[in-house]
Amino acid sequence: MAEIEKVAIARLDTGVPGLNMVLGGGLPEYSFNLLAGGPGGGKTTLGMQMLFANATPERPGLFFTVLGEPTLKLLRYEQQFSFFKPEVVGSAIRLLNLSDEVLQHDLGKVLDRIAREVEEVKPAFVVVDSFRTVVRTVPNTGKRAMQVEHFVQNLALQLTSWEVTSFLIGEYTDAESHNPLFTVADGVLWLSQDVDRNSVVRKLRVVKMRGQAPMPGLHTMRITGNGVQVFPRIPQRREETERPKSRRRLSTGITGMDEMMGGGIPAGDSVMLAGPTGSGKTTFGTHFLAAGARAGESNVVAVFEEYPDEYIRRAASFGLDLPALMDQGKLKVIYLRPLDLSVDETLQEIQDWVRQLSATRVLIDSLSGFEVALAPTFREDFRESLYRLVTALTATGVTVLMTDEVVESYSNLHFTSRTVSFLADDIIVQRYAELDGELRTVLAVVKMRGSRHSKDLRMYEITPSGAVFGDVLRDYRGILSGSPQLQRRIRRPAYPGLTHEEMIVLDTVIKLRGAAAGDVRARTGIASDPLERALERLVTLGYVTRSEENGMSVYRAVARIVDG
């Protein structure tokens, strides 16, 4: 038996952002496609946009309209979109009306008119809108079903034999999805509008696409002044942007925080910062951006709880000039707060700006505001959607910091406001506690995947210049209950004559049991010059010894006997 030669099918660019990816690589050339769904789904606009993206004077397109959509009416509305090019109408694209043939209630004449125009123009693309209107004009006699089936089969056969890429636009309900036309069509795109309370969201689903593997599921679709845009529910994996996991540590911008995290955030990690209202989550996020800016990195921040101007003014009070960073192309502040927002749109917006700025840090402030901004139809799948967003970003080596508001509950310890803690490589928890008659804020690093970290509970304050860390709470128990109690315990040896910074350095040397200056700097976040001065003074006062090992200075703490 002779071997069958494989035929290559060309794939056409639809001209619709996101749709090529959903279709599995583009639209198969010479395919016979059905654009189906209820009224107002965007079927006509989608068909027109694909036609304008592909039709040329050498490969023209025909757009047939019927009673429901006269040519002048169609032109009046479709020319409002940016994809519409009036100069090609009449040459590369011809719009024809089938009103006369349809009014005669004769499907044969409709088919003859389409055939004549196709034979004369020899188009590469044909759109019939609306196909269902043609069918519904046939009198409801005993022969109607047979006439319609005959018409459908002949039209499909002719469109295929003419070697044109064709689209039939029709209004169908879910109950009509078993129509014989769906079997004949090579591709079926189903457009719908989901209504939930006061929210309306457009969605697209590829029911069928012969010869290729389309992306499954429902995909968000939006119509703007540019036309239709599709947001694939599975983010595109770009091999050229995927980066191996780095062992580099990124500063949080807060010295005490870096110390607690073993030298900072591992590059490419996802970090969850959870705490009650007013605990300083946004301030910590601003420090994170500032640290990236100082290191020459680019940042993207998605804001959900306040307007960009307000966010920029707040950052200025901490000494961070966001407008200057934006002018330098080092920062993009994305404001996303419409009530019909989808996670797919958010992911697309963030990914586009990360790619454009080559950003290495992303701040999402906050997950609570993000969820509220979503259309109700997306909130049920919030965890799954958030997982896709985080993994898509961290796969490219981007470090993601997410803030999340948690309602204080001292009877139950919750790290996040919903079950999303599994998304984070690192979790930082903020809490309120009453100490000595004052409401104080405390913090702990709960989790760091594959990395050692401090187990301490540490006080901090939000000051006009930002977050300032205080002491470790070693003399209290029941801190997480909200009402800690002072306990009598053996005091740690005092360090007379040392500054707070020198005590931090000494504590670090003790914990490391011998370390080079670079190791101490990585754990504490203290800059080189003040660290060298602190180590030199500790050596002078006899708290630390210095020895040369393998060409570098190694510091070790000296055991001291303290009276009392």
If you had to describe this structure to a student in words, what would you say it looks like?
- The chain has 564 residues and is of the alpha/beta class.
- The protein contains 19 helices and 27 strands.
- It has a 9-stranded mixed beta sheet, with helices on both faces.
- Strand 23 and strand 24 form a beta hairpin.
- Helix 13 (343-357) packs parallel to helix 16 (382-394), helix 17 crosses helix 19 and helix 18 packs across helix 19 (528-540).
What tags apply to this protein structure?
9-stranded mixed sheet, alpha/beta, 26% strand, 27 strands, single chain, 564 residues, 19 helices
Record the strand order, biggest sheet. Answer: 5-4-6-7-3-8-9-10-11
Distance between the termini: 99 Å
Quantity of strands, as a count: 27
Helix content: 25-40%
What's the short version?
The chain is an alpha/beta fold and 564 residues long. The chain has 19 helices and 27 strands. The longest helix is centred in the first third of the chain and has 18 residues, at 144-161.
Record the SSE blueprint:
Elements: E1 11-12, H1 19-23, E2 27-28, E3 32-37, H2 43-54, E4 61-65, H3 71-78, E5 93-97, H4 99-103, H5 107-121, E6 125-129, H6 131-136, H7 144-161, E7 165-171, H8 180-184, E8 187-196, E9 199-209, E10 219-224, E11 227-231, E12 249-250, H9 255-260, E13 265-266, E14 270-275, H10 281-294, E15 299-303, H11 308-316, H12 322-327, E16 331-335, H13 343-357, E17 361-365, H14 367-373, H15 376-379, H16 382-394, E18 399-405, E19 426-435, E20 438-448, E21 458-463, E22 466-472, E23 476-477, E24 485-486, H17 500-512, E25 515-516, H18 517-524, H19 528-540, E26 544-549, E27 552-557
Parallel strand pairs: 3-7, 3-8, 4-5, 4-6, 6-7, 14-18, 14-19, 15-16, 15-17, 17-18
Antiparallel strand pairs: 1-2, 8-9, 9-10, 10-11, 12-13, 19-20, 20-21, 21-22, 23-24, 25-27, 26-27
Helix pairs in contact: 5-7, 13-16, 17-19, 18-19
